[in-house]
Amino acid sequence: MSDSNLQIAPVLIEALPYIKKFFGKTIVVKYGGNAMTEEHLKSSFARDIVLMKLVGMNPVVVHGGGPQIGTTLKNLGIETSFVDGMRVTDSRTMEVVQMVLGGTVNPEIVNLINRSGGDAVGLTGKDANLIRAKKMVIERVVNKIKGEEKVDLGHVGEVSEINQNIINILVDRGIIPVIAPIGIGDDSTTYNINADLAAGKIAEKLEAEKLIMLTNVAGIKDKQDNLISSINPDQAETLIKEQEITEGMIPKVRCAISAVQNGVKKAHIIDGRQEHAVLLEVLTDKGIGTLVTSQREE
Fold it and tell me: pLDDT, tens digit, for every residue of 212-264?
């Protein structure tokens, strides 16, 4: 027997208790960052999702598409800006968001999973009223004299309700849902939803075992740039106030906090630049990235 074969056995043995523990459980995976743009990472992600399904877990994929949207906007000569990690979205930008997420990114992910041996179906939040949304308005402190001001982000929305029926139907039939974070308002306005926030709310509604968010960093780090392996909501909020957690990491951390406070067992912020990042988090003892747990578990 070769040395490589001998090395495989401990890996499989280590994975066994996790396969048993998470059998039949829902795991919501937010897919984004480099994992969506580099070919070898795209392929490893698809295989991870298929393997999870084959061993009895129920993965639900919610994807972003920021780099692809940014590239398309640039090619069209449309300027874009961000506030607290949220893309300001006027009507023209919203058209591009829908085109890129629903027409390009979502079908590509579905195809990747299906080519890897899975059965995936693509959805946007507008399908079957999956994601009901309302306009998001951010309040920011201007200065001590002016105080706070409201920032109009245009067609940026926050989730008001998740209709999980279509997800349940697909999962019950052995199908992997792949969801683009586009929401619909009561007045039929289309909204651009931050993918992390959408994934978090979907995980809450499904009472998921885990919420896993892929990022372009190793996880949450302290002032000395050391990875924080585990954190609770109070600790995370302190890091945000002290501006150790900034920009695009803020919505990721906030949705992880909300998730573990509203029924999700565990939330993980992991490095999507690492091949098979999802399997390493789910099926190994050490895992990778930062684990966010509820206060009561500390």
Answer: 999 888 898 887 888 898 999 999 988 888 888 877 788 889 889 999 999 99
Please write the tens of the pLDDT for every residue from 162-189: 999 999 999 999 999 999 999 999 999 9
**Helices then strands (H, E): number in the chain?**
10, 14
**Long-range Cβ pairs for the range 240-249 (8 Å, 24+):** 245/220, 247/82, 247/84, 247/85, 248/82, 248/85, 249/85, 249/215, 249/217, 249/220
> For 8-42, how does the pLDDT look when each residue is reduced to its tens digit (9 = 90+)?
777 788 889 999 999 999 999 999 887 888 899 99
**22-297 CATH fold:** Carbamate kinase (3.40.1160)
Beta strand spans in 64-209 (E): 82-83, 86-87, 120-124, 131-143, 147-162, 176-180, 182-184, 190-193
Q: What percent of the chain is predicted at pLDDT more than 70? A: 93
Judge residue 45's burial from the number of C-beta atoms within 10 Å of its C-beta, 0-12 exposed, 13-18 middle, 19 or more buried: buried
Residue 142 phi/psi, 5° resolution? Answer: -80, -60
Residue ranges per structural domain of the chain = 22-297
Q: How far is CA 10 from the centre of its chain?
A: 30
Listing from the earlier edge strand, what are the strands of the sheet with 230-231? Answer: 120-124, 176-180, 58-63, 26-31, 210-215, 266-271, 290-292, 230-231
Spatial contact of 66 and 100, defined as CB atoms under 8 Å apart: no
